[in-house]
Structure formats: C-alpha cells, structure tokens
C-alpha cells in the first residue's frame, strides 16, 4: 500500500478465579502501557492515533498532505493496536484451518471503557458484531471501505478532526481557519513543537542510536508506531531532518523492519500479534 522511498528524494470458584486472573492481566497491561509511556513524556500521554496524526501534520499549516491517501487507514490500524495493548481485544488463537494472522478473527477480551471516545466507539462495534471479523476487514469497515450498505454503520467519521481536538485539549495543537479560494478549512498548527520533536527523536533513535536489530527486543509502542508510520506513508516526515548518511541508514533499517514476515514475527510473542496483523493487512492492500 505504501513504499519506502530513498532520498533522490469452570465451577463457580474456577469461574471467579478466571475472572480475577483476567482482571489482573488487564491491570498489568494498563500498567505496562503506563511504564512504556513514562519514559517518553512526563506529563503528556498520547495514543498511537494521536502520535500518527501529529507526525503527519505540517507544523505551521496544520493539515496533512493532500496527496496522502494512506493515513486514514493507518489511523484505524492504530485504533486496533491501541485496543489490543490496553487488553480490550485480541486475535483468536491459531488453529489448523486458521494459522495466518489475516485469517484469525478479532475477539473481545474486555468491554470496559478506555476513556477515549474513538477507542470506546470501536469497542462497541466489535462487541456488537456477529460473526466476528478479521483485522483487515475491521480496518476496511472503520474506514468506510465496504460495498455492504448494512455495514456502513461501522465507519468512524471525522477521525482526523476528533483526534486533532484531543491534541488541542492536550495543548499540542491549536485551531485555526484557513481560506483555500473555494472553501474554508479548519486547520490545527502545532503549538507544542517540543512534544513533536520528542516524538520524532524517539523514532529516529530507535533505528539509529538505540537500534537493536530485532523486532522482538524493541519497545512495543515504538515498534507499533514505526509500523503505523510506514503504513500511513509518513516515515519521510520522521527522518527528513536527518543528515543524508543518517537518513539512508534510518530508512534502510526501517525498511528491513517492515519487510519482516509478519507471520513469522507474530508467532514469537503474543503481545505483538496485533501489530504484525495490522502490517500484514496493509501489505495485502
């Protein structure tokens, strides 16, 4: 869907026990999310969708490239990964008939609210859907790319604007109106440049100074963000400030990362299954 460019440019007791274990797992996953975020920002916690949009926005203009038709799907993929990381959804276990990531259905683990409107709206759709759907189908449904009129209800509307408003509330963006001859458009220029630079540096360092050459040893959220930046066709934005030599190294390493076989990597650690499933979905598109 996107390409990486080089610069030329049981009993009641057992049931209660199971619920307790599941509750503890959910709590641990939320704590893990906090720990992974704590090293990145002291005060501001961003969702994967917010990070993707922030990376895709032009700082002064406050909008994404008109030529980028990938970021909408990338944001929906980010929603699925974020829900999985928060312990709300997971992929059904592999079977003889359903070994591939793209054949396995997305299942509900917990319907407890996340506090994020887009995540909770998606969670309600997943809970209400029978039969269950695959990762690729969910990305298409949430984006509105379906020929089935009965499934248009699953489309998430005004996603960029809603995410942008979250970033405005967090003090990272502001809201302005710009006139484009034939129409007015709401834009969201970056006001907290430090936060965006922190995010950019985090990704640059992950493929340069902190490169581990093994996806399984990478921080999960950093791995997810690199995959989503690639799928949203915004990696160029992340690495454009680097010198030519570092740019080439960063792009080559990012290219090697996203060209890993999702089926192989997804079997190594269940915590990263959804990340690789989303990448597999975009590779197939």
Automatic annotation (TrEMBL):
It is a peripheral membrane protein. Residues 1-40 are annotated as: Disordered. InterPro entries: GPP34-like, GPP34-like_sf. Signal peptide: none annotated. One of its GO terms (cellular component) is Golgi cisterna membrane. Gene3D superfamilies: yeast vps74-n-term truncation variant domain like. Residues 10-40 have a biased composition (Basic and acidic residues). It is found in: Golgi apparatus, Golgi stack membrane; Golgi apparatus, trans-Golgi network membrane. The keyword Lyase does not apply. One of its GO terms (molecular function) is phosphatidylinositol-4-phosphate binding. Pfam families: GPP34. GO terms for biological process: Golgi organization; Golgi to plasma membrane protein transport; Golgi vesicle budding; retrograde vesicle-mediated transport, Golgi to endoplasmic reticulum. Keywords: Golgi apparatus, Lipid-binding, Membrane. Belongs to the GOLPH3/VPS74 family. PANTHER family: GOLGI PHOSPHOPROTEIN 3-LIKE, TRANS-GOLGI PROTEIN GMX33. This is Golgi phosphoprotein 3-like.
